[in-house]
Every structure is written in C-alpha cells, then in structure tokens.
Amino acid sequence: MRGHVTSIARAGGGLTAxxxxxxxxxxxxxxxxxALSATHPAWxxxxxxxxxxxxxxxxxxxxxxxxxxxxxxxxxxxSGLNLTLALRWNGTIWQRERTPKPGxxxxxxxSPTLSGVSCPSSSFCExxxxxxxxxxxxxxxxxxxxxxxxxxxxxxxxxxxSAVLTQVSCPSAQLCEAVGFYTAGSGEILPFAAHWNGTxxxxxxxxxxxxxxxxxxxxxxxxxxxxxxxxxxxxxxxAFALRWNGTxxxxxTLPGTAGSRSISCVSxxxxxxxxxxxxxxxxxxxxxxxxxxxxxxxxxxxLSGVSCTATTFxxxxxxxxxxxxxxxxxxxxWNGTxxxxxxxxxxxxxxxxVLNTVSCATAAAxxxxxxFxxxxxxxxxxxxxxxxxxxxxxxxxxPPGAGDNGLTAVSCVSAAFCExxxxHLDASGTATIALAxxWNGTxxxxxxxxxxxxxxxxFRMRLAGVLCVSASFCExxxxxxxxxxxxxxxxxxxWTLQTVPGGYLTAVSCxxxxxxxxxxxxxxxxLWNGTxxSAQPTSSRFSSLDSVSCVSSSFCExTGIGSxxxxxxxWNGTxxxxxxxxxxxxGSSPGxxxxxxxxxxxCExxxxxxxxxxxxxxxADVWDGTAWTAQPTQNPTGSVGSSLNGVSCTxxxxxxxxxxxxxxxxxxxxxxxxxxxGWHLQSARSHPYAGQNSxxxxxxxxxxxxxxxxxxxxxxxxxxxxxxxxx
Length: 727
Prior knowledge:
Layout: E1 5-6, E2 44-46, E3 53-54, E4 57-65, E5 68-76, E6 82-89, E7 94-97, E8 109-121, E9 124-133, E10 136-144, E11 149-151, E12 160-172, E13 175-184, E14 189-196, E15 201-204, E16 216-224, E17 227-234, E18 238-244, E19 249-253, E20 262-267, E21 270-274, E22 279-282, E23 287-290, E24 300-310, E25 313-321, E26 327-334, E27 339-342, E28 352-362, E29 365-373, E30 380-386, E31 391-394, E32 400-401, E33 405-414, E34 417-425, E35 432-439, E36 444-447, E37 461-470, E38 473-480, E39 484-490, E40 495-498, E41 505-512, E42 515-520, E43 525-528, E44 533-536, E45 544-552, E46 555-561, E47 566-571, E48 576-580, E49 588-599, E50 602-610, E51 616-623, E52 628-631, E53 642-651, E54 654-663, E55 666-674, E56 679-681, E57 693-702, E58 705-713, E59 719-726
Antiparallel strand pairs: 1-57, 2-59, 3-32, 4-5, 5-6, 6-7, 8-9, 9-10, 10-11, 12-13, 13-14, 14-15, 16-17, 17-18, 18-19, 20-21, 21-22, 22-23, 24-25, 25-26, 26-27, 28-29, 29-30, 30-31, 33-34, 34-35, 35-36, 37-38, 38-39, 39-40, 41-42, 42-43, 43-44, 45-46, 46-47, 47-48, 49-50, 50-51, 51-52, 53-54, ...
C-alpha cells in the first residue's frame, strides 16, 4: 500500500490539537541556525489554499449621483491584517477598488483605515484616514481620478507625535477640507484642519474650547470655499462646532448633549448635525437642538451619519439597542419640520448591526454603510439603499477576509494526487466546518465537503484523519457537533457523508475499498466492509485512540491512552490486545500520536515523552512483530518542548516523522528521518512572522518524496494551512 499516513493524534478542540496557547509576540524570519543539524535536503513550503470569510466595515460613503457612490473603511485581508477598503456603487452592484498600501509599502504600516470620503463627481474622490507605524498614528490621504486611487503627501502638524484624519468634504476637485486630531509633545490631544487646493494639502489653525486637554474633530461639511461646518467633542468641555468663513475657523457652541458625529450642510443657512442621542440644526446664525426619535422598544440609540439634499429632506442613521441587548440598524428622516423613525433592516440572524454613514444624491436615492456580525463572528461590511419609501439591504458588499484554517492529516497515492483534511471557519465566521484540499500534481485546491445538518452559529465539525487507496477512493473521519462521529468518502468526484456508529473519530486506515479501520477518540473502533461501517470490540484498557494503521484485515496497530504503560494495541482480525510501549532511559509519561505499519513485523510509532527535566521530547518506538522498542530521537537545540505528530514509512530503513517544537514563545515545524540506523533532524520550514508552525501529518510515496500538512498563522495571528514537501 502506498502513502501510509497518520493524522495528529491527541484529540482536542479547535482547528488543531496541541497548538493552543501559541502567541505572536515577535517576528520570525527563519528557524534559528543552532536549532537544526540537517543532513538531508531542505523541506519546501507549498502554496496552500485557505477558505475566506466575508469581512469589512464601512466608515463613510459619498454619492455624486444615484449611480455613483464610493464607500470606504477597513477590512481584514486574507493575510489576517487590516487593509484599507474602498467600494464603488454603479447603480446595480458594489465592486471593490484597489487601494494603495499606506507608507508606499516601504514602512511596516499597520491598522490602516479610511474613515472619511467625499466625491463631488464620479471622476474625483478624496478619502482620508490613518495608519500606524509602531505606536505612532500617521495621517492618510488618497485621491480617486476616475480610474484608480493614489496616495497623497499630507503635512504633519507642528510638534505632533501622532496625527489622525477623520473626515473630508469636497465641494469640487480643487477644493477640499479635512479635519482630525493630533497628539502634541505635551500629551494634549488637539484638533487640526487642512485645505486641498487641487495640488497639495496645507494645514490650518483651529481654535480649542477653553479648558479642554482632549479635543477631537470628527464631522465636516462644506458647501463653498467660504463656508464649512465642523463638529467634534472635548471631554470636560462638551461638544462643539467650528465654522470656516474662507479665511479662518471660528469656535461655536452646540446645545444639548447629542454631540456631533456627522454634519451635512445644503447652504450657509441650513446644516444638520447628528450625535449620540439626538441632533442639532444650524439656521445661518446659531445652532439649536432637535430630538431625533428611536424606534419603539429601543432602550438606547446613537446616530453616526446624516445627509441632507434640501432643507426639507435629511436622513440620519446609526444604531439602537433593545431589552435583549442586541444592536440593530437605525434610520430617521427629516421632512422640514420633524424627524421620523424609519425601519432599517438588519441581516437575518445578526446580533449586532450598525449603520455608520449615509449619503443621499436625491430624496429617493440614499446609500448607507456600516457593519454587522453573527454571534461572536468577525465584522462584515453592510450596505443599504433608500428608495424614497423604504430601506433595502444590498448583497455582496463584504470582501473576502481572513478566517481560521488548519490541516490535520494528509494522504498521497501518487505525485499527482494527495488529499489533506482539517477544518475552517465558514462564511458566518462563527461555525467551524470540514476542510478538504486536493493536490493535482500542480497546485492545491479547496474541495467542497459534505456537511451534516448543523446549527446556524457556533457549529463545530472537523476532519482529523484521511486515507486514500486511489484517486477515486478516500476515507476521511472526524467529528461533528450534531452527531459526534463523522465519516466521508471520496469517489473521485465528490465527498459523501456516511453513517458511523459511536463517538468522534480521530484517524482511519484502509487497505482497500472494502476494508478500513477508524479509531475513536473515546477508545472505540469502527470497521468499513465496503458497504457500511460497524462498531468493533476494543480493549477496555484504552480510554482514547489517536491513530491506526492496517496492512490487512487481520493486522492493525492503534495507539492511544491505555493503562499500565500500554500506549498501543494490536488487531488480529478478531480482537485487540494491549501492548507495552517503552520510553528511552530516564523518561516517563509516553504519548504516541501516530503509527504506520509496513507489515505485521514492521511498524513505527511516534509521539512525545517527558525527559528528566519534565519537558516534552520526541518519542519513536519500533515494532518487530513481538514487542515495541524505544529508539533514540533528536531534539532541536534550544527547544523547550517538542513532539512528533505524524509518521510515514516507505521501508523499514526509511521513515519520516513530523511535528513541532517550541523555542521561546515560537512554535516551529519539526521533521526527522529514520535511515535504518538512527533518527536525524531535517530542515523543516516555518513561515516568516508566524507564531505557530506545526506539522500534523505526513505521507511519503518514495524516499525523498513526502508531503506534510499542518497549521501556521499569519502576521495577523489568523490560523492558516501549512503544506510542505521534502524527504
């Protein structure tokens, strides 16, 4: 049989077992040179696919017409890092636009976001926001010329240690105003404004409310070169507004307690400001407060966006909470006399929905943007349209983002066919479902797996083991939150669910399409006879099984947790017999994670054991047909804990084992090879910037031709698949 394979052994929750607790606290560029004494060809990381989940958050939107709107914000990219987000509405659909990388890609920029956008025409938009370099906030400005976005140079406020842009307003392509706040060397947070003249940005002085040490501008609307209104908040001094008269900014008082999160002006004599629990109106000489109602049953409400097309029509959006603690989208309309609450839909099943921004081209054409989430899932971008009479959710606004992915086992039958299995987050961002990747000799591709009927949120399903006897027959086993056990069969075209007795399964081994043995996490075993699965007797001395390998219907070996030093048991076609598994001298507490057999007289099992210092060390035991014997293994230099999770042999003198080891707080990939005399370390690769790298299973078709699968994480600490090839 080609492609003997084992999966990660020790059962546990999450996407991978034995990988919890790895935290990214420093950057990894390569495995320490002292950690490996490789004597074999280096392993190579292959590009492996990862499923994505919808993500994103719309912070601001601007419409120059009913068929030309631009929305900006942030999204969690497939790298696991935040990226700036720009979406464009053409009257029919939203499409994502490519935005440049802050800092020009030459500095380690992080947490970029676009928080404001203004488009006076379809061929010109200005977007502003910020990003970080270390702990320093840096202003971000980008312009749209009708075909693409380009970064702009933005001045730094004198004496600032950090600066953030929040909003922008452009009456034309030659005139924009932007506002934000910066941190002075004294530690004070102060407001600032800047003017765009069609060529470059120039800073402007802004007044500060008396007695305020923290002052931030977050709202802005301009109707001409001589009139803008800006709003903000100064804790301790209250909400305030600033008016631009073409020459300078002047401080104004805002009444009430609503504050100013958004402002929309249609003329020098009419502006609306929206805040946390109400709004204010400008009549050309002063601001006065207005009540803006929430819907019936609301226990609290908050407004974050407002847009007016005339003195008789405005829309304000935000969110409200009810007695259940859920948060829903909120909308109000102004008819020239009073505000009226409207029904703004929230996505079905969402427990948190917020509208952050709104822009109206006409009284019958408004676009609102925000975000929502299901249960504890990641944020997803949300867009809704106002038709003049009702709000409608628009589909397809959330771009693909990062989601946890992990592989636990792999099986190869040729250089042109391998199957790797594991689990990934689904589109809701809250449910974990089965993952299968297939290798066609050129690239890895994600396959559609068969999923049992499942709960909508928080569902858990994972494939833990796989064995292929050909490109048209594979068995994969695992667990599901619905039935406990899980088995799927691959027929060369699709994966199909199978009925399996007993609890969750951890590993499977097949000798033909008519014989497979599956090991259970609770110590049971199931047998496949080509038609159905049936429960088989097992040793009562085993509380769990982690791996199984069969060479015929009358000989299998399984490893797990037994009693009295028994970590393995053998199958003779009728019953299982416990077997003692030794550790090297001075060791204790063996744990065998994986086993592979070439014949009834030749098996190799790997795992870990406690050394004399009570740290985990790699363990390898060999079966000669009568008893298990411990073999000396290699422990990487500097390791504070290492284990072998998978093993595959092509002959008694050629085995490859894979796993992981810990240096400081980093988990690095581990590979060792048996040459018939001893185990030797290999140069398994670890992804740069990853805090965890661990190989869970391996399958070897020939000497020097092995494929290993496992899990890593990216710079955003999101789990990703890891596939390597080597000896």
